[in-house]
Amino acid sequence: MTLGGFPGDRLGSSTNQPPIQALYSGARPVRRIHIALSVQDLDATVADYTHRLGQEPEVVIAGSYALWRTESVNLSVRCTEDPPGTLRHLGWEDPAAERFTVERDVNGIAWERFHAGQQAREIRDAWPESRYEAR
User: Fold this and answer.
1) Is the pTM of this model over 0.85?
2) Whole-number mean pLDDT of the chain?
3) Is 85's pLDDT higher than 60?
4) Nearest CA to 111 among 98, 100, 122?
5) 21 falls in which pLDDT band (50, 70, 90)?
6) What is the DSSP code string of the chain?
7) Is position 4 within any domain?
8) Mean pLDDT, residues 71-100
9) Greatest pairwise CA separation for the chain in angstroms
10) Which CATH number belongs to the domain containing residue 62 in this structure?
11) What range does the domain containing 58 cover?
12) Considering the domain boundaries, does residue 135 fall inside one?
């Protein structure tokens, strides 16, 4: 079963990468699943997801974007013209990622792979006034 289209993202595979269970056993740095959603009401979304995730977002760009980084998930929401809740893309925040990559899976869904610093740089490029640095 392929999770994200990246080498080693196969459950029970015989690749040289550890199975997904090893991601939580200390065998290598923990990856966070990345989920990016379209929203229309950023303030309501921030209030709702802050409650659901039990923590404040790391960055909020008024009227445009918010990002939460919990122990297990990297969740970004962005105001777009798409219907609220539309999946923009999936991916992995992976400390071992040497560069930002994007691949499409068999369903046409974009999967990104990046480390936190690369994502912070993208946020600063889109919204320089944010001065966001990953924690």
Assistant:
1) no
2) 84
3) yes
4) 100
5) very low
6) -BSSSSTT-BTT--SSSPPGGGGGTTSSPPPEEEEEEEES-HHHHHHHHHHHHTS--SEEETTTEEEEE-SSEEEEEEE-SSPTT-EEEEEEE-TT-SS-EEEE-TTS-EEEEE-HHHHHHHHHHH-GGG-----
7) no
8) 97
9) 46
10) 3.10.180.10
11) 29-130
12) no
